[in-house]
């Protein structure tokens, strides 16, 4: 017989009745019935019920052993009586009459309960993550993550993609977030950077003659935590293809994404091909570039309703080039005044001065603070543009296009949630396409790249050369795209700019000379000068995909060892103070501010230990 187990704890069934078996696992739960004790033993695979009687010599040990201690037992598989069968677990028809009982590892008093769904503080969960990971829900999430990654790999290789690993220690590159820097010991004063993404390397692979690349890639960004973003590091399904158009990229990744969500969820999944929505339409109809299509509310622009109207506030905004956006609210006409007041307060929290509205009663009468300023023709036009009916209301956001979209988008989401319009049993995917190639940098008062500098502008170099004004430049669209699911951006991607002259021109428009491009992107530019194929790709976030499939609101629930919101690993104690000798080897001297922070932390730790 094996030293620790003949079977796992989720394996034994009625077919094993009468067999002598050995199991090892954690003490999950105990029930003492006086002359009879039941212990549930647990491992990665499941639970098995053990039976110990008062005649057993090891009863005292079994009675005193703490939850989460590791034990090994031998015994005979027995059938449970009909009234005690547990149909919720695979082993529920049997139990084991224990014949020998050994404690492999005694557990201390637990800081959190493993056999309970009770919530515990995040700090406790992360400090004792190895215990937290034993709990069913999060344990299953990590297993799901493993299965998703395995399936992604299989689906990609089935399409002819090859997996290559790209460097972790590389050069600093502007990718839109702060780099994590690694000092070089052998090159004093110089630093490596952890890659924010394998962007340049995967493009270099295409320039090297590989046709289809993918990688389950770790990426590192020094940015703040959010519910859908882990600080420090994350993983993405990085992919790139040669000799492709935007349509080819979509056709390659859509069956992979749809297949994953179909395989690991019972929810309805958008059929391929996924809908495509232009950036401009997304900002108008949904108020953002990552719309939740489960929400049926559609925002409309209603400038013509208020242009020249008696409502001077909106009329003045339209006259100055601003916009008025309308958000329908179905079936709320009978709601009390407090309902509308709360929506105004919600908009004010977002920075809006207020939130206008009109209510259409069941008899068709228009009410509200704005209604009296609009004649019947304008009200009819409003109904036609927004699709509202008797019994509905419509809210208004105003300002610049960006300001109105910001408010209208949040109000749309808020109404969809409050009115329970958002389905919980489907995954709705879409592509957002035709992003602006450039944007206006208000801080520096100049043209800047919108997504990243590696994308191909629609119209090629001619579009850049023919642009005479900033307005012309801001009108240029790029072969850039995002894939969105239920309001969560899974990935950005693009058809790449593989032409050196075009790249130099694009950077010149943003105020960077040829020497800057050669210095910061020298490897890629050199490769493009020796013949580079048209290529493109994207990189869906694995953490976010698993989060959506698992139905978790926070990404930390699907990561085995996440950091907290302050980018601290409180299980391993990172980041940590290092030995002065290590700093000397790296030619690093701490600033007075850093030393002060270290001394302050040390004093707090000493004070905490004393308490």
Task: Please give a structural write-up.
By secondary structure, the protein is of the alpha+beta class. The chain has 20 helices and 24 strands. The strands form six sheets. Strands 6-9-10-24-23-22-19-12 form an eight-stranded mixed sheet, sandwiched between helices. A hairpin with a 5-residue loop joins strand 15 and strand 16. The longest helix is centred in the first third of the chain and has 23 residues, at 136-158. The protein is globular. 33% of the residues are buried.
Brief write-up:
With 611 residues, the protein is of the alpha+beta class. The protein contains 20 helices and 24 strands.
Number of extended strands: 24
Runs with pLDDT <50, length 5+?
A: none
Q: What oligomeric arrangement do these chains adopt? A: single chain
* Sheet with the most strands: spatial strand order: 6-9-10-24-23-22-19-12
- Range of strand content: 15-25%
- What's the main sheet like? 8 strands, mixed
Q: Overall mean pLDDT score?
A: 95
Radius of gyration: 30 Å
**Helix percentage:** 25-40%
Shape: globular
> Roughly how many Å apart are the termini?
51 Å
Secondary-structure content class: alpha+beta
- Our count of helices gives 20
